[in-house]
Specification:
CATH topology of the largest domain: Maltoporin, Chain A
Radius of gyration: 28 Å
Number of strands: 47
Number of domains: 2
Number of helices: 5
CATH superfamily of the largest domain: TonB-dependent receptor, beta-barrel domain
Shape: globular
Distance between the termini: 30 Å
CATH architecture of the largest domain: Beta Barrel
Structural class: mainly beta
Strand content: over 45%
Helix content: under 10%
């Protein structure tokens, strides 16, 4: 606790130290307008050393054309202003020194570029990608991609990002990615997140930040990276928004979604409300093969399975409002409610025997389940500017409750293929879970002299999870099965604090360093068995970033961070979840957090092409592990800690314009992955060379049609103890806008060749566990959207908060 107390005390000193520092800071400020006096929003402002070509620092103007950034060190400079549709402009040379450390440029006027305006759909076809010291920024505002697309379309076309039909996200081939909106977690499941992004116009996006090594200000939880979608500020007085509807068909089921968003601004109030309703459908067709080599005999297990699900949701409601107390201070709230009902089936035909060609036993197992999911979220926030130098203080209070109720019936018919004797067994389960999260945080930012900046913050959270799972035999009457019944209670408290510094160290070197400390206490109790597992641990999470401009066309960056993954709350529950008479899942209350030390060396050429060398060293790796009972021919799937993991890789990003009307975004990943552990059956090693190729194409066709093609190939890889075979994906979308771009129509087709198939296998001491599953990703769909707006331009405020606890509820 002494480290936590020391850092918390340092944060307090920063709050008290203020006035002296703000007096030494200096700013470059101004307002950008066109030649008619209208504000030019989101223009790029670059500070360039006189006589040089590369920028020293820069920023993006707000919606009203205002900009403010920290002045660089003493010297002579020019400002370079640029925006889509305008001629670039440079200011006269100006000098910064001790007597004049900053400058107010007043109003800067940009002239329209008639040629660029005529070809804006070609010039701005591809988003601008900027590699910063701690993240890659994909700028969307002002590009053709922002017109007629959704936020989901833009996300899946970002370098290294892939999202499947259920909303599960991978970044550079790694799953478990955290997604934020304006630095705020969405509190949604993967499927609900996808639905929300599909309902959001891409024109609402300013940029996407791809943060593979998050700095200290973010929660230490998560090792796959963060995707932060920053929204444009609402610039319309009065009302504006959109309505949409879509339908899709996976060649067996039909689903649909529809919704609306509305923004309103009046004087000091700014609010929004969104509604999303859906009927989500899906399923899978699978083959499971297992071979158990026992001391007395060998058992072959062959199973064919079909699954279907339908999930319906009345309008999911999300709303919020901000109130400006003054120009410097605002308060607000956000709230949301989700209700989702689902039903599914999982039908299996299983054959067992000492020979795969001559089974002796057949099991017909049919599982039918129903569920009701409710999610309540609430947030109160404050945003304050404490002085004119850029000192800010933000505070957030988050409350989340997730209630999940389910029940299932299991019908099992056993047939002896020699005697044709049949027996039947019927079982029933009722499960209920209640998750509550309370979190409070505060973040403080203060500019220092010569372009330096310090950030500090604290966060406190508490999680309480109740899981009451009951299992019954149902052969004529319900009889409780005590071996598969469990009431599990979990409580976790985390106290965190961080300190982060960033700034220039010379003309061409940017540095950032931070330290985060998190203190965790948890208690998991099974009231059924009386078992209690208590954990308490304090961890330090340092991060370091450096970016050097070697030449005007070549930048070199380095980053290091330490992160952790805490177990999902459900993985800690020792309940035995039933799949079929020979297969079940079981939680592990003894799971420990996984730790990752991540190193990254990034080369950036011409501000466009990048090549990153990465190395991740992992300990206590969290991974699904199959545990085989060879004599009983049963398999238990659980999550366990493997000893170590090593990931060494190269990631390259190369956008390329094949023609004025044909643009591409290309990503390649090559990595070597190795996992090892001392298991019950001995020392196990799993290693594989992995590669991934991704190429997204945008083609402007005649008749104002736009064709978008997404192609991806994933080579074989290792994940925990599993070997995963190659997969591929091809998707296309044809888009057209009507009525002065107010109506957008999209026709799409996904996984055209059914190549995104999960084929996993393990070999533990010769015992085989293979499965081949296809989740009906191939589909066709149609989307219609109508955008409306009315009013003049105004300003609104955005907040940045995180709440990683919700991500671990799955």
């Amino acid at each position: 606790m002494k480290y936590f107390s020391a850092l918390l005390g340092l944060f307090g000193l920063l709050l008290l130290a203020g006035p002296g520092w703000s007096q030494t800071s200096a700013l470059l400020t101004g307002t950008i307008q066109d030649d008619k006096g209208a504000a030019v929003g989101f223009a790029t402002v670059a500070v360039v050393k006189a006589g040089a070509t590369a920028s020293v620092t820069g920023t993006v103007a707000d919606a009203n054309g205002r900009f403010q950034l920290q002045a660089p060190v003493a010297g002579t400079y020019v400002l370079r202003i640029s925006s889509v549709g305008f001629l670039a402009q440079e200011t006269p040379v100006f000098e910064l020194n001790a007597a004049a450390p900053g400058r107010d440029f007043g109003t800067l006027v940009l002239k329209a570029d008639a040629k660029q305006l005529a070809e804006v759909n070609v010039v701005g076809l591809r988003p601008t990608i900027v590699q910063e010291a701690d993240r890659m920024v994909v700028s969307v505002a002002g590009t053709a991609m922002a017109a007629g697309n959704t936020a989901f379309d833009v996300l899946v076309k970002s370098p290294g990002v892939f999202v499947d039909q259920d909303g599960n996200i991978q970044l550079n081939g790694k799953s478990g990615v955290t997604v934020m909106l304006d630095g705020r977690l969405t509190y949604l499941s993967a499927r609900e997140l996808r639905s929300m992004l599909e309902g959001m116009p891409a024109a609402n996006l300013k940029n996407i930040e791809i943060i593979t090594n998050p700095p200290a200000k973010y929660d230490a939880e998560g090792t796959s990276g963060i995707l932060n979608l920053n929204l444009k500020q609402n610039t319309q007085r009065g009302l504006n928004g959109s309505v949409y509807a879509s339908t899709n068909y996976n060649f067996q089921q039909v689903g649909h979604t529809y919704g609306a968003s509305l923004n309103a601004k009046q004087e000091k109030w700014n609010g929004f409300v969104t509604l999303d309703a859906s009927r989500r459908v899906g399923g899978r067709d699978a083959t499971f093969t297992r071979i158990f080599y026992g001391e007395r005999s060998t058992t072959y297990f062959n199973q064919q399975a079909t699954g279907n699900f339908v999930s319906t949701s009345p309008p999911v409601v999300r709303l919020g409002a901000d109130y400006s107390l003054t120009k410097q201070h605002s308060v607000g709230f956000m709230a949301g409610y989700t209700l989702r009902r689902g039903h599914s089936d999982f039908l299996t035909d299983t054959y067992l025997g000492s020979s795969p060609q001559e089974p002796t036993r057949y099991i017909d197992a049919d599982n039918f389940s129903r569920s009701t999911y409710q999610n309540y979220t609430g947030n109160l926030h404050y945003n304050g500017k404490l002085d004119t130098a850029g000192t800010t203080l933000t505070a957030d209070l988050d409350l989340v409750r997730i209630d999940n109720q389910g029940e299932a019936d299991f019908f099992n018919v056993f047939t002896d293929l020699g005697t044709q004797l049949r027996t039947q067994n019927v079982e029933y389960t009722n499960t209920g879970s209640d998750l509550r999260i309370y979190a409070a945080k505060a973040d403080f930012t203060r500019p220092l002299a010569d372009g330096h900046k310090v950030e500090a913050g604290v966060k406190f959270s508490q999680v309480t999870a109740d899981n009451d799972s009951r299992f019954y035999f149902n052969n004529g009457a319900l009889v409780l099965d005590p071996l598969r019944t469990n009431y599990f209670h979990y409580q976790e408290r985390i106290q965190a604090a961080y300190l982060n510094w960033s700034g220039q160290a010379g003309e061409r070197l940017k540095l950032q360093a931070g330290l985060r400390v998190e203190n965790t206490q948890s208690l998991g109790e099974s009231y059924t068995t009386g078992q209690a597992t208590r954990r308490r641990y304090l961890n330090l999470f340092p991060s370091v970033f450096a970016q050097r401009q070697v030449t005007p066309d070549y930048d070199l960056g380095f980053s290091y961070s330490r992160r952790l993954n805490r177990p999902n709350y459900g993985s800690l529950n020792p309940f035995r979840f039933y799949r079929d008479p020979y297969t079940y899942e079981e939680g592990n209350p003894f799971l420990r957090p996984q730790y990752t030390q991540a190193f990254r060396l990034t080369h950036t050429l011409r501000k466009v092409y990048s090549l990153a060398l990465t190395y991740d060293y992992q300990t206590a790796v969290l991974s699904e592990v199959p545990i085989l009972d060879v004599e009983a021919a049963t398999t238990k799937y659980t999550t366990d800690n493997l000893d170590t993991g090593h990931l060494i890789g190269l990631t390259g990003v190369a956008p390329y314009k094949l023609a004025k009307w044909w643009d591409t975004q290309n990503t390649v990943v090559v990595s070597y992955r190795k996992f090892s552990t001392n298991a019950t059956n001995g020392f196990l090693v799993n290693e594989q060379l992995y590669y991934m190729l991704q190429s997204n194409h945008t083609l402007l066709l005649p008749a104002k049609l736009r064709l978008e093609v997404e192609a991806r190939y994933l080579g074989p890889t290792a994940s925990g103890l599993y070997q995963i075979k190659p997969m591929h994906w091809v998707g296309i979308a044809l888009k057209r806008s009507f009525l002065h771009d107010k109506v957008d129509v999209t026709l799409n087709a996904n996984d055209l060749f059914k190549g995104y198939r999960y084929r996993f296998s393990t070999n533990i001491n010769g015992n085989v566990n293979d499965f081949n599953q296809y989740f009906r990703f191939r589909s066709v769909g149609l989307t219609l959207r109508y955008n409306f707006s009315k009013g003049g331009k105004v300003d609104t405020k955005r907040r940045n908060t995180t709440l990683e606890e919700v991500n671990r509820a799955g």
